[in-house]
Specification:
The structure holds two protein chains of two kinds. Chain A is an all-alpha fold. Chain A contains eight helices and no strands. In chain A, helix 1 runs antiparallel to helix 7 and helix 7 packs antiparallel against helix 8. The N and C termini of chain A lie far apart (55 Å). Chain B is mostly helical. In chain B, helix 1 packs antiparallel against helix 10 and helix 3 packs across helix 7. Classes of the chains: A mainly alpha, B mainly alpha. At the A-B interface, helix 2, helix 3, helix 6, helix 7 and helix 8 of A face helix 3, helix 4, helix 9, helix 10 and helix 11 of B.
Chain lengths: 248, 243
């Protein structure tokens, strides 16, 4: 009985704290997390497709560049890359502003934390997406590319009509995995001060001394985000491969 | 180029390498034991075991490691029974042990899925052949299933190990002065983040590349039957044109 009593008490404190404004803050945190993840995925998609093209290129130099990119950004701790872009960005911006004379010689021009975080997570996500795109390009039937060439299609036309639609279809499951990874990486940019879910939970935990409650809530919200994404990507996969499944 | 600065930074960060390796080793080793248990529970055929492992994997793969670390380090100490427990409290009040526990619990979820997949990928024919030879279940597991499954698990498991090396950097947010923490401190002291983080980055990259090499080598050692016989060239001879 005592156990249930204390549980009820805990739940009512939890409700009070969440209703007192932390709940709304956490919802904003989710919004920021999703914004960071989406923007990072877009940056990653652009970089990833360029890097995948470089890795598939006939030129040794480009291939080497692509290989180095994916090796470095998949091999470094995410935290290090985030610090590099945030603090390194501050270093570069400050240096530039000081030499241009727009700030005093002791002032510091900070890297915008959202920009720094999104660039870092986007570049990491790009390294993983490059591998996904490369894999799906290699899965296209050689014969289709040869047929397109035999028809006299130009490189661009071949890319637009044959390569891109198939790469997109084959890449959907892999992109789903990268999306989950990126959601989890986005938690790390709380160290630079972007008010996403993790930082909001942190603030709430520190100022109310209810760390267990707020970290559990944050954990559950992350679980909700990752598990809601799964059926969405399943649906996207079914949609993009609709012409390859047997009609019922 | 300030060469001395690079060298001294490199050296200071390298001095923290043993601590990083310690976190990494214990995290991975304890995680491996837990993963073995989880895989066994999942493969045992008990419904309850299956539900438990499914839930475990769902929770630990679906949330960021940072949340898990904060929950263990900051969250668990709210329970009175943990603060008064003579066994749990010495572990959970130490940020180092907390990082190891968080990493072990996290990697156990990912690894148990890898092991489950590789167990299922063991060719049925091999198991049937072992049964036909009259091998008892344990011998069959020891001589047929386990060696094949281990070899199949290696590539994915090496990826997981590299993810764990990267995860050791998170220890720096709970005040551990491992490589990342040391780099952070030097960076705050000197305000030269690009140089300092590049030095740390080079060390992390070399560490991960050597781990990848090591695993590739073990995989090579474990698959002598897949290599061409000595003296035989790797290339498949073209089929003579008889048609």
């Amino acid at each position: 009985m005592e156990f249930f009593g204390s549980l009820l008490e805990q739940l009512s404190t939890a409700y009070d704290l969440l209703a007192a404004g932390w709940g709304v803050q956490l919802l904003w945190g989710i919004g920021w997390t999703l914004a960071v993840t989406t923007v990072s995925m877009v940056i990653g998609a652009v970089l990833g497709s360029l890097v995948a093209a470089a890795k598939l290129s006939h030129r040794g130099g480009l291939r080497f560049l692509g290989e180095s990119y994916t090796t470095v950004f998949r091999g470094e701790p995410e935290l290090l890359v985030i610090y590099l872009f945030y603090y390194g960005g501050t270093q570069v911006l400050t240096g530039m502003a000081r030499s241009a004379g727009s700030i005093g010689s002791t002032d510091i021009l900070n890297m915008p934390s959202f920009l720094g975080g999104v660039l870092a997570v986007g570049i990491i996500s790009g390294a993983y997406q490059a591998e996904v795109f490369r894999g799906s390009f290699l899965a296209i039937h050689r014969g289709e590319l040869e047929a397109a060439r035999a028809y006299g299609m130009s490189t661009f036309l071949r890319f637009r009509l044959v390569i891109m639609p198939q790469v997109l279809r084959l890449a959907v499951p892999g992109l789903g995995n990268v999306w989950q990874l990126t959601i989890k990486d986005s938690a790390l940019i709380s160290v630079t001060g972007v008010a996403e879910l993790m930082l909001t939970a942190n603030k709430a935990a520190r100022s109310t001394h209810h760390s267990l409650l707020f970290y559990t809530v944050a954990g559950i919200l992350y679980l909700v985000m990752t598990s809601v994404s799964t059926p969405i990507f399943d649906k996207a996969e079914r949609y993009t491969s609709r012409s390859f499944t047997r009609p019922k | 180029m300030d060469f001395d600065f690079y060298l001294s930074t490199m050296w200071s960060v390298l001095k923290a390498l043993p601590l990083t390796l310690e976190i990494w080793f214990f995290g991975v080793a304890i995680g491996l034991v837990l993963a073995t248990g989880l895989t066994w529970l999942r493969a045992s055929g008990y419904k309850l075991g299956e539900y438990f492992t499914r839930a475990y994997v769902f929770v630990f793969r679906g949330s960021p490691l940072l949340v898990q670390l904060y929950l263990i380090y900051f969250g668990l100490s709210q329970f009175d029974f943990i603060r008064h427990s003579p066994i749990l409290w010495p572990i959970l009040r130490d940020p180092m042990y907390c990082t190891i526990v968080a990493m072990a619990l996290n990697t156990a979820a990912y690894s148990s899925e890898i092991f489950r997949g590789s167990l299922r990928a063991v060719p049925v024919g091999q198991i049937e052949a072992a049964k036909a030879f009259g091998m008892p279940a344990f011998t069959r597991f020891r001589l047929v299933t386990l060696p094949i499954a281990l070899r199949l698990a290696l590539p994915a498991y090496s990826t997981e190990i590299i993810l764990m090396t990267k995860a050791t950097a998170l220890a720096s947010v709970v005040t551990i002065m491992e490589m990342m923490g040391t780099a952070q401190k030097i960076q705050h002291d000197t305000f030269r983040p690009i140089e300092v983080l590049t030095c740390a980055g080079v060390i992390y990259l070399l560490l991960n590349l050597s781990i990848a090499r090591l695993f590739a080598w073990v995989e090579y050692l474990l698959s002598p039957h897949l290599r061409p016989a000595p003296g035989q060239s790797q290339q498949i001879k073209p089929v003579p044109e008889v048609l």
